[in-house]
Amino acid sequence: MINEIARFALDNMPFTIWIKDLDKNFIFINKAFKNLYNLEVDDYKSIKKEVCDKCNVKSICDQKINDVLESGETSKFDVKVGDIENQCYISPYFDENNKLMGIFGVLVDITKVKSKQKQLEERENILRTIIDTLPNYIFYKDKDSRYVGYNKKWSDHYKKLGIDSMIGKNDFEVDSISDSLAFKYRKQDLEVMESKKMIREVRGITTQEGENRIEETIKVPVVNEDGEVWGIVALSTDVTETIELKEKLMKLSYTDSLTGVYNRACFEEKKEALNSSKHLPIGVIMGDVNGLKFVNDTFGHLEGDKLLKNMTNILRKVTCKNDFIFRWGGDEFIILMPNCDEDKCEQVIKNIIDGCKKVDFELIEMSISLGSSIKHSLEASIYDNLKEAEEKLYRQKFLQERSIRSSIIFSLNQSLNEKNVETEQHTKRLVDYACQIGKRLGFNTSQLDELALVTSLHDIGKIGISEEILLKPEKLTKEEYDIIKTHTEKGYRILQASGELSHVSKGVLAHHERYDGLGYPLGLSKEEIPITSRIVNIVDSYDAMISDRGYNTVKTKSEAIEEIKRCSGTQFDPNIAKIFIEILENEEG
């Protein structure tokens, strides 16, 4: 039996301890056992049923006791008493003659351990769920480069290749990985583990579907608290879209969005890249598109954009693939041409001018003022060449300016004729009638010249109105008529943009004003209306009455004269109406 010293020691143990004889009857329980099962009696034989009823593994416990008695070896299993988790150890005990005397058990409270273990499992499950949900390929290797784990994305990929598991294998033992790649991966793994630093690799791959993609792999060392490398963790990501987006953004940052050529920001980078002896000499051409402001002011910026795009196409056609075209400003372009001497530069300029002549831009003739310079040495500043090219450009532009503006007006008049809006015969008749009236009013030569110009150009603004409306045979809708009425303002802006014709712009603006103030666009009346406008109004109205314009009833000459009389003092200046009627009545035929 247990002596007092042993009993005292066992009672003060922090573990639950019990001892049974060979008949499985309790012969000792310590204080911790009593506390666990809330026992107060010392009669060991009476507590068996009470204890066993509280045990959640009674049948297992009985079996384990039998196993220990038969084998003479210790057994271990878990048992729960109430809310307390225990690990139970059952061992046989022998006398000094090695005769089996019974068994004893020790219950170790592992509730906290179990709780921590459960928390760890929950965290591990959460982490596993996160890793498996990620769109990346993730794998782990030990220090011998053998796979010890990977996420679902990785597993699914290799299962499609017929590989159910890679655990415990290295890359040389995976059928789908070539020896050359295996050597490469092993070398990377060793580099990571030896340097204890992350490495990154971007490479092109071909998917199972035959699609070319770009993959980025990052390998990171796994280091314990002692600084020893345990292995590596790697993450592979498909970065195709990211790289493509980056390239697009880079291209956008260096490309002019309208024309598609390089922008001014890109010039700074390209000039540095070209500053090498292998690129010398470098041809520098600066160009200023003629008429852009005129087209923007007259027809709107959309038409101006078309002009710039057409010019860009010309520049592209006459330059080589190694040349660089930049949109420098609103209407300015710069061309940098590596390995280009003076003769080649002049030839390119000639080709640009010839290219402009071949392009049919319906509003004006295509033209561009050009200047050039050659950078011969690395020490020379490209900006000095730009300055020289710009000075040549503006000398040329100054000499050409008058002819350019005249060409623009001529082109617009030609376009009106081609649209069948105005004919040369119509314009000639109006100018003739207008000048006859002017002479009767005592106009001098310069006044007659101005009158002839206003009469010739009075409908120039119609160039900015669609042919569908201008040539519509039926009666115009209110919306269409409102559009037609804008031609006076359009004509005004066209002539204002042309310096030498700006003095006739007011006459063109007001040629649909009425003497009674009910005209457009300003609602002027009587002498507020320029006299040239009042003359154009009456001669243009008369010609409209006697001409077939599709939507009107053609009047005879006498009917038209009666209409002028009727509108004298309302639509027409009465004095001018009287003079014009006299001219018409004195006409032959």
Structure, explained:
The protein has 589 residues and is α+β, with helices and mostly antiparallel strands. Helix content is 49%, strand content 18%. It contains 22 helices and 14 strands. It has helices at 4-11, 31-37, 48-54, 58-71, 111-133, 152-160, 179-195, 240-254, 264-274, 292-299, 301-318, 342-358, 382-418, 424-440, 445-457, 467-470, 478-485, 487-497, 505-509, 531-546, 557-567, 574-586; strands at 16-21, 26-29, 75-81, 84-94, 100-109, 137-142, 147-150, 199-206, 212-223, 229-238, 282-289, 324-327, 332-338, 368-375. It has a 5-stranded antiparallel β-sheet with strand order 2-1-5-4-3, sandwiched between helices. A 5-stranded antiparallel β-sheet has the order 7-6-10-9-8, sandwiched between helices. Helix 21 (557-567) runs antiparallel to helix 22 (574-586). The termini are far apart.
Strand order of the largest sheet: 2-1-5-4-3
Strand content: 15-25%
Radius of gyration: 50 Å
Low-confidence stretches: none
Number of separate strands: 14
Average pLDDT = 84
Structural class: alpha+beta
Cα-to-Cα separation, first versus last residue: 158 Å
Instruction: Please report the number of helical segments.
Output: 22
State the helical fraction: 40-55%
Q: Biggest sheet, in brief?
A: 5 strands, antiparallel
Note the overall shape.
elongated
